[in-house]
Each structure stands twice: as C-alpha cells, then as structure tokens.
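ok trying this again, last paste got cut off
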Amino acid sequence: MRSSWMDPADIGLLTELEPVVARALDAHFQRADDWYPHQFIPWSEGRDYDGVLDGQPWTQEPDGLDSAVLDGLLHNLLSEDNLPSYHRMIAECFTRDGAWGTWVNRWTVEEDRHGMALRDYLIVTRAADPVELEDARRLHMQTGYDLDCRGTSLVGLVYVTLQELGTRITYQNIKRRCGEPVCEALLQRIAQDENRHMLFYREVLGAAMELQPERTMKALEEVVSTFRSPAHAAPGFRRLSLSMARSGIYSPVTHHDEVLVPMMRHLRVFDRAGLSAGGEAARERLAGLLQATEAKARRFADTVASVR
C-alpha cells in the first residue's frame, strides 16, 4: 500500500530495491534468533507496589544502578515506547507490500521486545519510579513521531540506517558501564537485535547508492544536517541526552566517530567516481557537514577533558 505523498521516483526505487530487500530479509531470518523477555527479568526480586495491592511505595534505593546507566536506560525506554509511530512511519516510507511489508512487520515484532523487557526490568528491580515511567510513556506516545526530514523513502532509509547503528552503540555502551549481570545480559540481546536491523538497512541503502547515487547523496546530506534522536520530544530528553553525552554513552564524539564516519566509509561516499554535477555538489555539502560534526566532537571532547 503506497503512501499518498510518495512520488514516482520513490515508487520506482522501491520497486528496483525489492529483490535486495527480499535477499536481506532472508539473511535476517537466517541470522535472527528469537528470545523471550521474561527470561531476562529477575522476577524473584519483585515486590507489590502501593495501590490496589497495598504494597510498598517506590523509593530511591541507594544501591541501585549507576545514575548514568539509569539515564541511558530511561532514554532508550522512552525511545522504544514510541514504536506505534515508528511502525507507521516506516510503513509509509517503505509501503506494506511484498518484502518491504514483511520487513516492516518483522522489525516491529522485534523492536516491541525491547521496550517490554526494559520496562519490566526497571519496575521489578525498582530501579526507576513506575509512576514517572508511565507518565513519560503516555506523554511521549501522545506526542507521536515524524521524521524531521520527511519527504522521500530514500531519506527515511538513510535515517533508519544511521539510527539503528547509533542505537546499537548506545546499548553496548550502557552495558559496558552497567556492572549488573542480568541487565548486561538483557542489553546484549537488545544490541544484537539492533545490529541485525542496522545490517538489513545498510545493505539496502548500499544498493540504493549503486542504483541512484545522486539522490542518495542528497538524502545523506539532508539527514546528516537534521539528525536527532527519535526521543527528542520525550519528557526530560535534554537532561537525559546531556547525561548520556557526559558519560560517553552517546556524545557528539560517538555520533561523528562511530556512526557518521564508518557509514560514509562503508557506502564509499568519498571514493565514488562518475557522479553527476548534482551528486558532486551534494557530496561537497556532505563533506562540509562532516567537518562541522568533527569540530563539534572535538570541542565536546576538549570541554569534558578540561573539567576532569
């Protein structure tokens, strides 16, 4: 089912990419190993809360998770909470037809596990206030989500490829700081899902670059210039994102060095010959954007070093 805003260039590209999507989907099913969120939750630590069960109200426990780890988990849970909006967005970008539609639904199935497991873990272990969690979930989902650079399927493909890579890195970095074995095991499983999602999108994006290099360069430029977390409208996002940056979970350095640069290298953005004049111009603008993100990363690193 095609979106009403989809232009003929999008329709043609999605059709050309369909065989690539089908192969990437087959590879994904071969790599994927389903897991069960309930197996990663320490249920024996759970206690009734106040309310109809007249249990123990939530209080901050002194021996809980490291504050930076908790902030990273809260940010990622809020990100995962908006899954209905993300499902709508990628269904509009990629259609619900054929292999594309199968991917959209499979991706949603796998992503749904993440928010479910993170919330259960935080509530059972009393690591976070369940009332604040629910209030934030409700407000964030009611706000919804749309791409900043909404307009073409190719732009959407670039965004989700970069976003999945950034999300995988975030989960891995939270795990490295965590120090709690059960949480580490859960984060490892989620990171594996996110990595497989990134591999799927990266393969399709690479094919798009071969088929339509000029349009792909322009889409890369547009996304890099506007990129931000899908949780940017969530309650408390600014505080959580600053905490993640200061702790090294996800900072301007991470974004430039571990997301943008490796992706540009994989796509051979600056090694390609034979671009049209429009493609060359887009590549030059993209190079300028990467210089700006590198300068921002170095300024951030210098600032962090100066206060230590």
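PB: full thing came through this time. The first helix runs from residue 8 to 31.
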